[in-house]
Each structure stands twice: as C-alpha cells, then as structure tokens.
C-alpha cells in the first residue's frame, strides 16, 4: 500500500482536513486584517528579479478560449460564456446605427460565470466549517453583496512574479500525460523540479501540467468539468505550505485529484488550502504551448503576469495569464 493510501485509510476526510488545517494554517501570519494570504510571500524585489528572466522575448497565453464550446456542463449553474453582438458591421453597412458622416462600429457583451474557464479561485471561494480566510465568519465576510473583505479586486495588482512550470505529465506520466485519478504527491513535484533543473521557492507562482487538457482536446471535453482527473494529492498540503509559494495553477478543472482520496469527500485540499492556508489557486490553465517551449529550449522559470479582473466583491475571476521568457 502506498503512503498516500495508508494516510487515507487511517483517517476520515473530516479528521484529515481538521489535522491539516491546524498544521498548515496561516491565520494571523500577516495580521488579522490580511486579505492576500500567500501572495504576501511575493515581494516587490521578487517581481524585479522575475523581469530579468525575460531573455528571448517570447510570450505565451496560458488561457483557454472563452466561448460556448467550453467545458462547462451546468454543474451548480456554471455555463459556458455566451457572447452576443450588440452592434455589427451589417448594421453599419445598412445605415441602421444613426451615426453621422458614414462612421459605424461594432459592440458586444458577454455573460458568463466567473469560473467557467481559465480562472483564479479567490480567498472567499471556499470555507471550512463556516470560516473564511484568516478565521473570519463566512456569513459576514461573503454575503449576497459579494465578498466584502477578500474580493478578487484586493489582489488585482500583485499577481505578477516568477512563474515555474512543473510538467509532471512529461516527467512522471506515460506519453506526457497523467491518467485520470492520478494523485500528484510532494515527491512527484520534487522529482519534476529536479528533472527540470529548477528550484521552487518563496513567492513563486507554480504551474502544474498534468496533460489532461491535451487529452480532452483530442478526445472531447467529456467529464473534464467536474469528472475524474489527475491533480494534487491531499497529502501535498505540507509541500504547498512549507514551500511558501504565492500561488499555484493546474490545467485541470478542480486542481486536486478526482475522485478525491477519501470516500464521500469533496475537494478536501481546497478546504485546507484556501480558507486556512490562504493559497491562491488557478484552474483550467492552458500550459501546452509553454510546456512545449520549455521542453525545446529549457528554462522552466519565467516572468508570469496573471492579474484577475478587479470585479468588486467577486470570489473568483477569469484571467489571461501571460508567461514571458
């Protein structure tokens, strides 16, 4: 039996979450009023050093497309984006817009859940027994008016620094991809970092490629949105805490391995990482082009700019992360 299986067999999810929450809590670490959690590890001097990593001038968008062909299947009313034109070239050509001297234009609108494609989970997204980040009462912190304390707008200017790609799919997987249900442990992360010749440390924004997105692009979305997936093991929580990373993102819908490692559990690593650790989590990132470039040219560390939209009171946000090498 693997160490992970032994852990899972020895505890219920309730017990394991409670134990990890105590062990890896950052409550009060940056004061009682803190709203940024582990992003506090990412200091201005680190951003300056990250800029020096740009040598070739190559840039990579790490975002999936936002359109109606996306992965969502309606779980908890999450739908794919609906893009609608308000004004078109046809309207302009037919003279229906009412503008003078021949000028015309196009305009459009989009309606979508904020976590329907490439996105950040804000610190108000997940609670642990009614507690939000830093021990706040969830009922008071996040209401029908939105996240009144840690709304995504509070981190709009700070999510930029040194990015590190850990291509676990290529290093550990078969054919560059991990199978659904594969739990990525601290050992897998460390082995991958060593294979890449890169160190992961304080203030880094870590991108973990499993290869699942590449697979569903070949085979169809299937259950990508909420179904079985490779992902971070619950037992990687210690690594996430002691590494002092600022944020972490994966190419999967739910960041952690699915099915989860406990019977009848739902996203237990989220329950530890977000409200207790204060860790910023990204999901559904497209790491394929970046991973191919890293494999071809080396350089698994890069400048990463991944600012959320400053939507007041939001508990998550779409993002178009840009990696620069």
From TrEMBL:
Please report the name of this protein according to its UniProt entry.
Kynurenine formamidase
Q: Which InterPro entries match?
A: KFase/CYL, KFase_sf
Q: Extract one GO BP annotation from the record.
A: L-tryptophan catabolic process to kynurenine
Q: Report which superkingdom the organism of origin falls in.
A: Bacteria
Question: What would be an example GO MF term here?
Answer: arylformamidase activity
Q: Which organism is it from?
A: Spinactinospora alkalitolerans
In terms of Pfam families, this protein maps to: Cyclase (PF04199)
């Amino acid at each position: 039996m693997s160490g992970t299986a032994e852990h899972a067999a020895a505890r219920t999810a309730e017990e394991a979450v409670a134990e990890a929450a105590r062990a890896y809590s950052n409550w009060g670490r940056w004061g009682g009023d803190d709203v940024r959690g582990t992003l506090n590890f990412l200091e201005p001097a680190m951003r300056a050093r990250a800029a020096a990593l740009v040598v070739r001038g190559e840039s990579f968008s790490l975002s999936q497309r936002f359109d109606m062909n996306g992965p969502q299947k309606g779980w908890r009313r999450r739908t794919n984006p609906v893009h609608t034109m308000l004004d078109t070239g046809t309207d302009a050509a037919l003279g229906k817009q009412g503008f003078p001297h021949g000028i015309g234009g196009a305009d459009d609108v989009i309606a979508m859940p904020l976590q329907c494609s490439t996105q950040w989970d804000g610190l108000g997204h997940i609670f642990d027994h009614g507690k939000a980040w830093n021990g706040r009462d969830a009922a008071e912190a996040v209401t029908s008016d939105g996240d009144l304390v840690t709304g995504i707008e509070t981190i709009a200017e700070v999510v930029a620094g040194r990015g590190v790609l850990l291509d676990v799919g290529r290093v550990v997987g078969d054919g560059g991809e991990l199978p659904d249900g594969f739990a990525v442990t601290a050992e897998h992360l460390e082995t991958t970092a060593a294979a890449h010749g890169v160190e992961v440390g304080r203030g880094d924004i870590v991108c973990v490629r499993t290869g699942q997105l590449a697979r569903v692009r070949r085979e169809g979305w299937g259950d990508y949105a909420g179904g079985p997936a490779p992902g971070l093991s619950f037992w990687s929580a210690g690594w996430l805490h002691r590494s002092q990373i600022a944020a972490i993102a994966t190419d999967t819908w739910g960041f952690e391995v699915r099915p989860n490692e406990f019977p009848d559990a739902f996203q237990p690593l989220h329950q530890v990482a977000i409200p207790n650790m204060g860790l910023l989590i990204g999901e559904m990132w497209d790491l394929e082009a970046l991973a191919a470039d890293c494999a071809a040219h080396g350089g698994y560390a890069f400048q990463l700019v991944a600012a959320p939209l400053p939507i007041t009171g939001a508990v998550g946000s779409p993002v178009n992360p840009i990696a620069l090498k």
